[in-house]
């Protein structure tokens, strides 16, 4: 015989009640144009200009909520789409997952 030992390891994720029931949708810029992104239902209302965002660029929604992001370019810019990112493959129908930040990159370019 020999001497051996057994060890058990586990990863435990602890959620507070708020994060157990909610996830977030956030918008970040891609491109150098200007525009606005709003969500349906309401929550996100983000102005994108010169590669940065201002206003409410992240909001929490109840788990299971389907969120649509609508992008409107400024008069001097054009909307070139949302980059398909994990958690934001289709910005027209984001199903909010528990404790997840669905980060969506919006593209506005100067005309």
Structural write-up:
With 111 residues, the protein is mainly beta. It has a single domain (17-110), classed as Immunoglobulin-like (Sandwich), CATH 2.60.40. The chain contains one helix and nine strands. The protein has one helix at residues 17-21; strands at residues 22-30, 35-40, 45-49, 52-56, 58-62, 66-73, 77-83, 94-95, 101-110. A hairpin with a 4-residue loop joins strand 2 (35-40) and strand 3. The N and C termini lie far apart (78 Å). The mean pLDDT is 89.
Tags for this entry?
single chain, 111 residues, mainly beta, Immunoglobulin-like, 1 helix, 9 strands
CATH C-level class: Mainly Beta
Give the amount of beta strand, in percent. Answer: over 45%
Order of helices and strands: HEEEEEEEEE
Main beta sheet: 5 strands, antiparallel
Report, as a whole number of angstroms, the end-to-end distance: 78 Å
Present the secondary structure layout.
Layout: H1 17-21, E1 22-30, E2 35-40, E3 45-49, E4 52-56, E5 58-62, E6 66-73, E7 77-83, E8 94-95, E9 101-110
What does this entry show, briefly?
With 111 residues, the protein is mainly beta.
